[in-house]
Specification:
The complex is a heterodimer of chains A (396) and B (289).
Chain A (H helix, E strand, L loop, with lengths): L1 H25 L8 E8 L9 H16 L7 E8 L4 H14 L4 E3 L4 H13 L4 E2 L6 H4 L6 E2 L5 H15 L4 E7 L2 H12 L1 H4 L2 E8 L7 H9 L4 E5 L2 H14 L5 E3 L6 H7 L1 H4 L3 E4 L9 H13 L7 H18 L10 H8 L30 E6 L2 E5 L6
Parallel strand pairs in A: 1-2, 1-3, 3-4, 4-5, 6-7, 6-8, 8-9, 9-10
Antiparallel strand pairs in A: 10-11, 11-12
Helix pairs in contact in A: 2-13, 2-14, 3-4, 6-7, 9-10, 10-11, 14-15
Chain B lengths: L1 H29 L6 H18 L4 H24 L7 H23 L15 E3 L2 E3 L1 H23 L1 H11 L1 H6 L4 H27 L7 H14 L4 H22 L4 H15 L14
Antiparallel strand pairs in B: 1-2
Helix pairs in contact in B: 1-5, 1-8, 1-9, 1-10, 2-3, 2-4, 2-8, 3-8, 5-6, 5-8, 6-8, 9-10, 9-11, 10-11
Classes of the chains: A alpha/beta (396), B mainly alpha (289).
């Protein structure tokens, strides 16, 4: 009798636990019949707040989608929280996203160092991390199916910079000014990995700190070594400081700046003359492009953030958000079938999709290296203060 | 390269000098290390930018309005925040200015946004060549303004009644009050002069460090280090200390490695305080904080 009772109790417990697991599978965090909660850490204040444009760009797209009725009738609740580009703060913010807010996914967040600090935790909790604005190797090569990087790695970009210096500008020696954080260090890794391949010598690599007011010491030192080409792995404000100092010293060597330094702010802060002729890598078309997707982006940004001048950083968020809603749209309509794993699988179905600002999106199956939303760099040159499309010889 | 690093270092130091003078001025007469001195300048830069946009680009109008606005701000801070706690210990006064620092950061961000803004250049971008080394006109002007302001304040303290009264308060506030010196008015005047300095500093620095809520954060720290380096009571010491810090940063960046630039200022300050606790120009023993 006692044995029967025990069997009955164990059976009931087993049945209950199966039901609980089923319920957990069915009820994905952050999803209801009316809403999907997407969360994002952003440098809304502090030294890197220029990059909050990315959050605004994503917000523009989600607002637009909501105005059109949402995705399958569900509104996107896009929650942005300020981490001030401070990894220790990001850690707290993301823990709250996952454990307190029950966010469905982390979408369109910004920062190499912040993301590197939280990526282990996010993936351990099997939360999709989609379209993060980071180029640091750790984040882009992360062995997890939950990570969907936005753009090519800074290592790849570093390699492209050397190629550009050699094949386009005929440089045999280069110098490099870089931000002393994972983004800059990944650029160095890329640059150094192809020096012998292209027969280029790196004569100086000088770091700057994010809160540094003045880069004159570094610029004087690099100019004295007389490199043929200078590479700048700089955020817009420090790129502007570099150009101002370069102009003062009369340094004429051509300059190639990484894509996260490509912002009209550089020209605005340093002045047209100082930046004239400089090359920038980029991942998007120009805001002035007649492409209908670009025109829509410009008009929506104007509508929701009338004081913002459209630039590439807005596009990081906007374009990434478009891919997110595309993947959400491919999910089943029933709330019970929407899970984080289903979102990952939905993203992996995107092939040659041309419905957004990125000309074509193809996402592979696998881990982060197969999941890039954007795969190729393109190039711009500053002419009369404007960013003009520049096509290197190897792309013609 | 050595000469260029030194001249560029002087230029960097000139960014810190006016803030250092403001810190010293207020500290001498009130024993308050004013952490909001940099943010007075930041508010000044934003005010000047707004006035420039609305006055057809008149720098004279912008400068005058900014001086009035920032002086008024400094006076309000003194009357509403510092005066009620005037008898408190230095830590309370220090903490109050820290509060003002954060309030001004928040208010500026709320009014003008967090984005970095450009400020019209006051001088041509063509540099001047001094013995083959180059310095921008704006930086050279900064050095001159810091030297002139330091000189004017020196003469003010030496030869004018309010200046002598301020010095008396610095020496012994209680005795000064007993001698009939209106201590409160002099303290208010001190904050007002600090406001004028901050306004000038904000306008001069805005084209060089760009306008944002954080534009003066680094300047404040280095200006404070420059002020302590020079002796915290000495106005010429504040200027010279700031210039030395600027040069040391550039030499460290140029010859030891850019990663030592930030560290060197603090290494120097520890060394100076260990060897000469009242700073390079601190003079004889005075009331310590």
């Amino acid at each position: 009798m006692r044995r029967r009772l025990m069997v009955a109790i164990v059976t009931c417990l087993a049945a209950a636990s199966v039901t609980l697991v089923d319920t957990a599978r069915a009820q994905a965090p952050g999803v209801s019949d009316k809403e999907i909660l997407l969360c994002s850490y952003q440098p809304m204040t502090g030294k890197e707040s220029t990059y909050f444009r990315m959050g605004k760009g994503a917000d523009v797209w989600y607002k637009h989608v909501n105005e059109q009725g949402g995705v399958h009738g569900r509104k996107i609740n896009f929650k942005m929280v300020d981490d001030q580009y401070n990894p220790s703060r990001t850690t707290v913010v993301v823990k709250e996203f996952v454990e307190r807010d029950n966010c469905f996914a982390i979408a369109n967040p910004l920062g190499s160092a912040p993301t590197a600090a939280v990526i282990d935790y996010i993936t351990e909790n099997k939360v999709p991390l989609i379209g993060a604005g980071t180029g640091a190797a750790k984040n882009l090569e992360y062995p997890s199916r939950y990570v969907f990087p936005l753009y090519p790695s800074y290592k790849t970009e570093g390699q492209d910079l050397v190629r550009f210096a050699k094949e386009e500008l005929g440089g045999k020696t280069v110098s490099l000014l870089y931000q002393n954080d994972p983004s800059g260090k990944t650029h160095i890794e890329g640059v150094e990995s192809v020096l012998s391949k292209y027969g280029v010598q790196l004569v100086a690599k000088e770091p700057y700190e994010k809160n540094e007011l003045d880069v004159s010491a570094q610029v004087i030192k690099m100019k004295a070594l007389n490199p043929d080409v200078h590479l700048c792995s700089c955020a817009p404000e420090h790129a502007a400081r570099f150009f101002t100092e370069r102009q003062k010293l009369g340094w004429k060597a051509p300059v190639v700046v990484v894509f996260f330094g490509q912002s009209p702010k550089v020209v605005e802060l340093a002045g047209k003359e100082a930046v004239e002729g400089a090359y920038f890598s980029t991942i998007f078309r120009r805001p002035s492009s007649p492409d209908p997707q670009m025109r829509q982006f410009v008009s929506l940004l104007k509508k929701y953030y009338p004081n913002e001048e459209p630039d590439a950083i807005h596009m990081w968020g906007y374009a990434g958000a478009q891919v997110v809603t595309e993947a959400l749209g491919r999910l089943p309509r029933e709330t019970s079938k929407i899970t984080r794993d289903a979102l990952v699988e939905s993203l992996e179905t995107i092939r040659d999709w041309k419905g957004g600002l990125i000309p074509s999106v193809t996402i592979g199956k696998g881990n982060a290296p197969e999941h890039f939303l954007i795969r190729e760099m393109s190039w711009l040159q500053v002419k009369n203060g404007d960013f003009e499309v520049f096509t290197p010889k190897w792309m013609k | 390269m050595l000469a260029q690093q030194i001249v560029s270092g002087l230029a960097t130091g000139s960014l810190y000098a006016l803030t250092a003078i403001g810190i010293v001025l207020i500290f001498r007469n009130t024993r308050t290390i004013n952490l909001a001195q940099g943010d007075f300048s930041m508010i000044g830069a934003f005010v000047a930018l707004v006035i420039l946009e609305h006055s057809g680009g008149s720098l004279v109008v912008a400068t005058l309005v900014t001086i009035v606005a920032v002086t008024a701000l400094a006076v309000v801070v003194e009357r509403l925040i510092m005066r009620p706690i005037e008898g408190s210990d230095w830590l309370t006064l220090f903490t109050a200015t820290l509060g003002v620092f954060y309030i001004l950061h928040g208010v500026a961000g709320w009014i003008w946004g967090r984005d970095t803004k450009s400020f019209p250049a006051l001088f041509s971008s063509a540099p001047l060549s001094i013995g083959g080394t180059l310095i921008s006109q704006a930086h050279l002007f900064n050095i001159l303004v810091a030297a002139v302001v330091g000189g004017i304040l020196y003469l003010f303290f030496r030869f004018t009644k309010p200046g002598i009264a301020m010095r008396a308060i610095t020496e012994d506030p209680v005795a000064a009050q007993l001698m009939g010196i209106p201590v409160r008015s002099i303290v208010l005047l001190t904050w007002a002069v600090g406001g004028v300095l901050a306004a000038i500093s904000g306008i001069l620095l805005a084209p060089l460090v760009y306008v944002s809520t954080q534009m003066m954060d680094g300047v404040l720290v280095k200006g404070y280090v420059g002020a302590v380096f020079g002796g915290l009571y000495s106005l010429p010491g504040a200027v010279i200390g700031s210039l030395i810090i600027g040069v040391a940063e550039n030499l460290a960046g140029g010859y030891l490695g850019a990663q030592y630039k930030v560290t060197i200022a603090f290494v120097l300050i520890v060394l100076v305080l260990a060897l000469k606790p009242r700073g390079l120009f601190g003079g004889k023993a005075r009331r310590e904080i």
